């Protein structure tokens, strides 16, 4: 659709912003978005302009060298060929956003579960409550890339489960990025009605060399809703994948997420969770196996804004070769959030001297009656564990492989989690084989 | 089966084992007793091939093979098993998978075909039933979150799966209550036969009420200072380790 490129090798941040805005304007001319989407795009580019292009000195991007993105020559993705093959098992049963554009909904997805409504974003935005919610989110955005993603949205999907219902099976969403140096911006909104129960699986596929997927995913949990979320993130070699999650939890809701880095390239997983209703519970387990020059960066902020809320975070990262991981996580307990409980634990395994792990756990507590803990470890494989396995006749290589797998599996051991974890385990095993090779 | 001649060994540059000689034959159960710091656990570590141990002198042969020529995993494959005093926890690795890996390593070493998970489950179930272990042990991570008694039981389960020629039980009674001690000891006794051998390391005579030794050796300051039958253990129990000089 567009041949414009971002080529800013010598440009300043301000010039980068200006050129990005130019690219945005050119994109608008070509795509001619629906009025409701246009309002969102405009608000987002305005917010991006206010925030500026994040340099490395920006606290939110301390561990990512954004200059590489600044220097990259991206073009906007063409509308995706809906006849093209999307990798993955049973992909016909998935909701597919290819290069940010929603593929025609297959009957299996569209009509499988009467309690689950799947609506294309432009149509869903006719509901002004949703539009206003997204606008408010953009106007309060502090993450420039999340704002940029919303500015470039051409399409998206809204999944809603009705109150007092249970989904019969997980909703699977594939975010596919085409080959080449394209920039895509998919948007997903998941609304869980009061006392509903839903599982959502998001899988990233494709992501050719130097592609940049910049996605926004919103979860809104009404009173008593339970939502389980499984993310498989990472594109192809040298690709960039940024996902900003916006989680809003009302009274007695339960959000349980398992995130796995299973692809390649540079990923950023940002989660901004607001526990605004009493007795809400948030849980995040994350596991990453980094090979070659892979990078996985996590930026998490959990805001306890109501009473008696709980949050739990566990990160298990394995770094090999020249991989790099960072975890920047904050739990903020507000003034009125008494009886809050939170746990943050980050465990990194550094298997090579060239690997790197940065951890920045933070607690901001404005209430006296809370129980919050955080901890982080970074180290090599436990020699005692290796020795124990060898004492049972298991050779060193197999022992180490099993120990690394076990280390990662800890984050995948979630009691009563209904999303299918086995494919994630298989992907991690395949990556382990690659590491051994 | 096992011949130790004038073994001397150190940990962190400090000589702990100062000349031990001991012969263990098939079908025998030997108990090694002694006070804290006498070198009991160091002896077990030396035999298992713990890299923290430095051999200063002497020799050890296991079924005619120089033990020091074998890596720790090769010693295990040759039939030597150490039941740890403090079994290591491995979060995330299921007991079932760990045991299957160990069992398949043994089969592979013997030139036999490895077993798949389904076939292995049958073997595992049988052993667990024999030892009175609940199904929860199968899926739980290796020793992670286990009580002291459960960890020791799990060591015996490994022993049952691998059926080693020589088992060294390093203070398997430590941290066990009376009932757990009986269960663990029963498990060991079920595995004992005239083709294998046991070295039971303990502080207390009480364990030997359950696992009857053919020989009892008293270790003090890195040397065996007395050897005898189970009567020796009873005398130790009555007089304490402070009176070892009387035994010598």
Q: Give average pLDDT of chain A, whole number.
A: 89
Strand order of the largest sheet of chain B: 6-9-10-3-11-12
The dominant shape of chain B is globular
Q: In percent terms, what proportion of residues of chain A is strand?
A: 35-45%
Total strands of chain A: 21
Order of helices and strands of chain B: EEEHEEHEEHHHEHEHEEEHH
Kindly report the greatest chain-chain contact and the residue count on each side: A-B, 24 and 29 residues
Structure summarized in a few sentences:
The complex is a heterodimer of chains A (437) and B (248). With 437 residues, chain A is of the alpha/beta class.
Explain what you see.
The complex is a heterodimer of chains A (437) and B (248). Helices cover 24% and strands 36% of the residues of chain A. Chain A has 437 residues and is α/β, with parallel strands linked by helices. Chain A has one domain (13-380). In chain A, strands 1, 4, 5, 7, 8, 10, 12, 14, 16, 18 and 20 form an 11-stranded mixed beta sheet that branches. In chain A, strands 3-2-6-9-11-13-15-17-19-21 form a 10-stranded mixed beta sheet. In chain A, strand 2 (95-98) and strand 3 form a beta hairpin. The longest helix of chain A is centred in the N-terminal third of the chain and has 19 residues, at 13-31. Chain B has 248 residues and is of the alpha/beta class. Chain B has 2 domains: 2-86 and 167-247, P-loop containing nucleotide triphosphate hydrolases (Rossmann fold, 3-Layer(aba) Sandwich), CATH 3.40.50; 88-145, no CATH class. Helix content of chain B is 37%, strand content 29%. Chain B has a 6-stranded mixed beta sheet with strand order 6-9-10-3-11-12, sandwiched between helices. A 4-stranded antiparallel beta sheet of chain B has the order 2-1-4-5. In chain B, helix 6 packs parallel to helix 7 (178-191). Chain B is globular and about 55 Å long. Classes of the chains: A alpha/beta (437), B alpha/beta (248). Chain A binds chain B through residues 382-385, 387-396, 398, 402-403, 405-410, 413, and chain B through 48-51, 71-73, 75-77, 81-82, 84, 87-88, 90-93, 97-98, 101-102, 105-106, 109, 141, 158, 162.
